[in-house]
Design goal:
Distance between the termini: 37 Å
Strand content: 5-15%
Radius of gyration: 22 Å
Helix content: 40-55%
Bound molecules: flavin mononucleotide, iron/sulfur cluster
Structural class: alpha/beta
Strand order of the largest sheet: 6-5-9-7-8
Length: 432
């Protein structure tokens, strides 16, 4: 564990014009692809497996292991799909990465596609971020013109086409099977697993689907070696990652550090909680995870330690709330998001999120009862493990942990006949 930042993916973000081919080359870019093309593909898969890189899209599945699941010599096309949907509240690392350094991702795509023997790669970007779509498409064009994409890349005999696809803006399309369905042109609904995408993914062919940050990490692993990456981070959560701090923090932004850094350390780098206030609660990884409190500031932010503390590392999107924030209101907002984004395919999630919003809304307005809290927990019980996909499960931890840590605050609303907090005070421009 360390308290220092390790800028690798974010290393050159302040360099003017980094997003262009010339800018990326000035930062040493596009030098790893030739090295990778000289290696047998299976050695690249082994390097990523030995590095210990775990998926940066939330679940933390070992990346090299996922790649090795692809059947070889099956005569079917293989596909690489990059999950750039990034839609969860608080999640904001992939968009800045693609804006600042799109070529880094594209070089990672080229190396990965070669490693898994794919000749087609898709980058599925959330449609609302049109500026990112444009920037990626421009970078892809430049990479074709420079001979890093297309036919017979750098004389290696390897061919690769990269398509930047804009989604229509639905959180469910970040779920990997819904994303594939959407990419095929259908409504983005999740599919039953198994079969897993590695066996039957895009167009029923073997497919690797990885997060932007996972694939953008590949060039540095190939360049510096698996041991270098494995030497960073903790025992089971190797390497570095981008920690996105937002909310009531003095300097919100992206902090790239080894896994295992703590919130206390990150806050000290970010100037602390906004002046004159103190930490009340926070999330370690977006909104599908349990809330943590000021007592968890020294929990190492790695997959295992955060799980042991009762939450999940997820996407390392740290949402910070000070004492002006109302837990009931925050949990209501997140639940409204899940209700809105529920695709409606299965009953526990579709109905459960609907009713949770109604109950939370009356609790927030001081019209709830003690039984409402039990009812909320009961609904969570009925969603968890019964929903068709992880979106439903993800809607419950903010509710259950909110009640676990702040039951009194829920009841205070009832006693006072309304929310005891001033919403204006919790806005970033609030002064009280
Ligand atoms: C509702 C939902 C939304 C998701 N959104 C994203 C996303 O925007 N980006 C992402 O990389 N993974 C997202 N995931 C996780 C993906 O299903 C998948 O695990 C991930 O893309 C795998 O890549 P990785 O192994 O590199 O992390 C989401 C999962 C769910 C259930
Ligand atoms: S849990 Fe069910 S309703 Fe919710 S998003 Fe997944 S499939 Fe759709």
């Amino acid at each position: 564990m360390t308290d220092t930042l390790t800028p690798v993916l974010t290393a050159h973000w302040d360099q003017p014009g980094l997003f262009t081919m010339d800018g990326y080359r000035r930062s040493g870019g596009w030098q790893v692809l030739p090295q990778a093309l000289a290696m047998p593909p299976e050695d690249l898969v082994a390097a990523v497996r030995n590095s210990g890189l775990r998926g940066r899209g939330g679940a933390g599945f070992p990346t090299g292991t996922k790649w090795s699941f692809l059947p070889q010599g099956d005569g079917k096309p293989h596909y690489l799909v990059i999950n750039a949907d990034e839609s969860e509240p608080g999640a904001c690392k992939d968009v800045p990465l693609m804006m600042a350094n799109p070529h880094l991702l594209i070089e990672g795509v080229a190396i990965t596609a070669y490693a898994i023997r794919a000749e087609h790669a898709f980058i599925y970007v959330r449609g609302e971020v049109l500026h990112v779509v444009r920037r990626l498409r421009h970078a892809v064009q430049e990479a074709y013109a420079a001979g890093y994409l297309g036919r017979n890349i750098l004389g290696s005999g390897f061919n690769l086409d990269v398509i930047v696809h804009a989604g229509a803006g639905a959180y469910i399309c970040g779920e990997e099977t819904a994303l594939l369905t959407s990419l095929e042109g259908y409504r983005g609904l999740p599919r039953l697993k198994p079969p897993f995408p590695a066996v039957e993914g895009l167009y029923a062919c073997p497919t690797v689907i990885n997060n932007v940050e996972s694939i953008a990490s590949v060039p540095s692993i190939v360049a510096n070696g698996a041991d270098w990456f494995a030497g960073l981070g903790t025992d089971k959560s190797k390497g570095y990652g981008i920690f996105s701090l937002s909310g009531h923090v003095t300097m919100p932004g992206q902090y790239e550090a080894p896994l295992g850094i703590t919130l206390a350390e990150l806050l000290s780098l970010a100037g602390g909680v906004r002046a004159g206030h103190r930490l009340k609660f926070w999330t370690a990884g977006g909104s599908s995870v349990g809330l943590l409190t000021d007592q968890h500031q020294d929990v190492p932010l790695d997959f295992e330690s955060v799980a042991a503390a009762g939450s999940q590392l997820g996407t390392r999107s740290l949402q910070i709330f000070d004492e002006t924030a109302c837990v009931v209101r925050a949990v209501l907002r997140w639940t409204e998001f899940y209700q809105h984004e529920s695709c409606g395919k299965c009953t526990p999630c579709r109905e459960g999120t609907f009713w949770m919003v109604r109950i939370l809304d009356r609790l927030e307005h001081g019209k709830g009862t003690d039984e409402d809290l039990d009812k909320l927990l009961d609904i969570c019980d009925n969603i968890n493990g019964r929903a068709f996909c992880p979106l439903g499960d993800g809607a419950t931890p903010p509710v259950t942990s909110g009640i676990q840590y702040f039951r009194d605050e829920f009841m205070q609303h009832q006693k006072e006949g309304g929310c005891p907090f001033d919403p204006a005070a919790s806005t970033l421009w609030g002064t009280s």
